[in-house]
């Protein structure tokens, strides 16, 4: 098991980073928020969870052990795999997910693409008595002012990332349009993506 990685960041994508460890570049899948915090050339330390499949070994990375623990815990529920678990952490902070499960807040859980009412009910039923809900505010997803015109290529990258997380093409396009059409709209890829995630999570 690869429990963590530390090393210089060689590449930053919308939902992944490449970290060099011992001369080997490891592709680590992350939430868009975690990827946005990494900088090419700077050292990063990520808590990791290795998902082993017959045809692949996939590494998922998190800024803290808290998010990693939740990522692994929700996968104990039938029908929840690593992609859906990562989507949950892309939309909500770890304690927001825990609080939603502990309080049976189906509305919050179904904001995650791929989680319908039945899946949300199953999460609550199987984890409500096991999960620790800590009373903290959700992660701050506020957007910094941008104001500059946004390139179509940038918007395309954001839409593609949102679709990869499970939203439909229309949902992704509508969210990007709302975010970039607002006053003081963000301009960078990561800022637009975070703002679109916030918009879709409402």
Automatic annotation (TrEMBL):
This is Holliday junction branch migration complex subunit RuvA. It comes from the Bacteria. Homotetramer. Forms an RuvA(8)-RuvB(12)-Holliday junction (HJ) complex. HJ DNA is sandwiched between 2 RuvA tetramers; dsDNA enters through RuvA and exits via RuvB. An RuvB hexamer assembles on each DNA strand where it exits the tetramer. Each RuvB hexamer is contacted by two RuvA subunits (via domain III) on 2 adjacent RuvB subunits; this complex drives branch migration. In the full resolvosome a probable DNA-RuvA(4)-RuvB(12)-RuvC(2) complex forms which resolves the HJ. The lineage of its organism: Bacteria, Bacillati, Actinomycetota, Actinomycetes, Micrococcales. Residues 64-141 are annotated as: Domain II. Residues 150-202 are annotated as: Domain III. SUPFAM superfamilies: DNA helicase RuvA subunit, C-terminal domain (SSF46929), Nucleic acid-binding proteins (SSF50249), RuvA domain 2-like (SSF47781). The RuvA-RuvB-RuvC complex processes Holliday junction (HJ) DNA during genetic recombination and DNA repair, while the RuvA-RuvB complex plays an important role in the rescue of blocked DNA replication forks via replication fork reversal (RFR). RuvA specifically binds to HJ cruciform DNA, conferring on it an open structure. The RuvB hexamer acts as an ATP-dependent pump, pulling dsDNA into and through the RuvAB complex. HJ branch migration allows RuvC to scan DNA until it finds its consensus sequence, where it cleaves and resolves the cruciform DNA. One of its GO terms (molecular function) is helicase activity. InterPro entries: DNA_helicase_Holl-junc_RuvA_I, Hlx-hairpin-Hlx_DNA-bd_motif, NA-bd_OB-fold, RuvA, RuvA_2-like, RuvA_C, RuvA_C_sf. Has three domains with a flexible linker between the domains II and III and assumes an 'L' shape. Domain III is highly mobile and contacts RuvB. Its main location: cytoplasm. Belongs to the RuvA family.
